[in-house]
Write a structure and sequence with these properties.
Layout lengths: L3 E7 L7 H13 L5 E6 L9 E4 L17 H4 L3 E5 L3 E3 L4 H4 L5 E5 L7 E8 L5 H9 L1 H7 L5 H8 L6 H4 L4 H4 L1 E3 L1
Parallel strand pairs: 1-2, 1-4, 2-3
Antiparallel strand pairs: 4-7, 5-8, 6-7
Length: 180
Amino acid sequence: MTELIIACIRTGARVPFDRVTTLRNAVDRNLDRPYTMVCLTDQPERCTGVAFVDISAMKLTGWWTKMALFEPQWRAGAKVVYLAFDAAVSGDIASLADVPGEFAICHSEVSDCGYNPSVMVLGSLMGNFVWYGFERRRDLMIIDHARFGPATCIEELYPSAPSLQRLLSPEFFRTNLRLM
């Protein structure tokens, strides 16, 4: 595995498998540096060019599977750029791989929710405290954050996370990566 992981999550039967291959192809066209594409999944389908990590043992469902990104074992010390399937790669995304620090996340336009976990960057060996904080109180956090899910859960665990919109050029989310 390289020092950079581009990650996606596909769990349950709701998301068609071609979303994985579409994202793989878009990243391949728009990232000119070594990386490993990883899909966290509980589904059996596989394809070339993507490493698959079975997360079914974590017993996370729905949008809560995003919390698996913070689990340290599967990341093996690599930097992780997470892209949800609602993030359309349309240009060079190398600046995401260059985001400094331990963690950065998109900030949301929704007033009740400060974060949008559709795009996140986890530094090498970073963010573990988010996983451990979530794991210690998993059942309570899932109840407390039922309305906005991982967005407000991550915000509670890491309230001062840097904003990707502030760290990247103003046009990045208009020209290189569009959130749908």
